[in-house]
Structure formats: structure tokens, C-alpha cells
Design brief:
- The structure is a single chain.
- The chain contains eight helices and no strands.
- By secondary structure, the chain is mainly alpha-helical.
- It has one domain.
- The longest helix has 22 residues.
- The termini are far apart.
Length: about 200
């Protein structure tokens, strides 16, 4: 197992994301898109693992993660989005990917992609230097911990409950009926007084 980690560490350290300028700026058809993305990301995946499919790309477009193609062709911006998604899909949900792939206001997609590439290279180099880890369990638990962190940071905040338009009137509770006062049983002394008066 340690040998596999060392081998993977060397793959991580040698991995270099394709610069923006080298992403094709002419339109690629779907089969070319899948081949391009797989070729760029293949070294990160296990041998024989299917990295990308046309169905995945169609779903990413449908969910709004990737801009719609121009006709049936995907340009540089589409490819940059798909390259980011290929890595991010390992850790975050579709909503999380949308938050990370779509550039914030005032930032271009090129700037977002270049920031992603710098972060990717730094993190991969750091992980490669930390390997080998003591066990597969440590790898799995660390992976889960980072995924929990991603979900917590990217989770949508619940909307506050709407304020009621009119404050409800407090329910009027009927007062309990007053019970009749109990009649006192005549004592022998009072009975004697009544008899004297009569």
C-alpha cells in the first residue's frame, strides 16, 4: 500500500493543469470534449476508471454548471469549466460546484480558472509531500473530513421564517364558572338559636 501512495505522490507532484492560453479556443464537439478532459485529468484517477462521459457533460449543462454550447460546439470557457468540475466533483455537490465554478461578480472566468489552477497545484504538491499516510483508513477519514468541511462551508443558509402579517390575538380562555358557596351544615348550637327565635 505504501508503494502505491508513493507512486500516486509522484503523479500528484508532476501533475500540472493546462494553462488558460493552451485550452483550445475553437469549438470542440462532444466526443472531442470528453477526450480532451480525460486526457488532462487522467493521471488523477485510478487506472481504468472512467473520468468523463458525454452524459455527465449534458447533465452539467442542464444543471447550469456549464454554459450552453454554441450550437453543438464547446469553446475555451466551457472546457475550463469542465476541467474544474472534473476535480471538484470528487468532493462537492452540484450546488457546491456551481458556487465554485461560476466566477463572483467582477471576476472573469479566466481569473477564476487561473486561481483554481494555482490552488490545485499547491494542494496537490502539499498532499504529495505528506504521503505516505499510515493507512488507508487515515486517507479515508481525512477525505471524509474535508468533504464535511466543504459541505459545511458551501451549504445554503436556511431562510429566516417570515414574520406574520398580523400578530395573532391571544386566545381568550373562558373564566371558570364560580362554584356556588357550600352551605354550612347547621351545628347543634345554631339549630338551638333558630329554635329559640321561632
Amino acid at each position: 500500500m505504501e508503494d502505491r501512495q508513493v507512486l500516486f505522490a509522484s503523479r500528484l507532484e508532476s501533475f500540472s493543469p493546462i494553462p488558460w492560453e493552451q485550452i483550445p479556443d475553437f469549438g470542440l464537439y462532444m466526443d472531442q470534449v470528453v477526450t480532451f478532459v480525460e486526457r488532462q485529468c487522467k493521471s488523477l484517477f485510478a487506472d481504468g476508471e472512467r473520468v468523463f462521459t458525454a452524459a455527465m457533460v449534458n447533465n452539467y449543462v442542464k444543471f447550469g454548471l456549464v454554459s450552453r454550447p454554441d450550437g453543438k460546439k464547446y469553446g475555451r470557457e466551457h472546457l475550463a469549466q469542465l476541467l474544474m468540475i472534473c476535480v471538484l466533483k470528487q468532493a462537492v455537490s452540484a450546488d457546491g460546484m456551481k458556487a465554485l465554478v461560476k466566477p463572483p461578480e467582477g471576476v472573469t472566468l479566466r481569473e477564476q480558472y487561473e486561481q483554481f489552477c494555482r490552488t490545485e497545484k499547491e494542494v496537490f504538491n502539499s498532499l504529495g509531500a505528506a504521503l505516505p499516510l499510515p493507512s488507508v483508513m487515515v486517507c479515508a477519514v481525512q477525505g471524509a473530513a474535508y468533504q464535511f468541511l466543504c459541505n459545511a462551508v458551501l451549504a445554503k443558509q436556511p431562510l429566516p421564517a417570515p414574520e406574520p402579517r398580523h400578530a395573532p390575538k391571544p386566545a381568550e380562555v373562558p373564566k371558570p364558572a364560580e362554584a356556588p358557596k357550600p352551605t354550612e351544615a347547621p351545628t347543634p348550637e345554631k339549630a338551638a338559636e333558630s329554635a329559640e327565635r321561632a
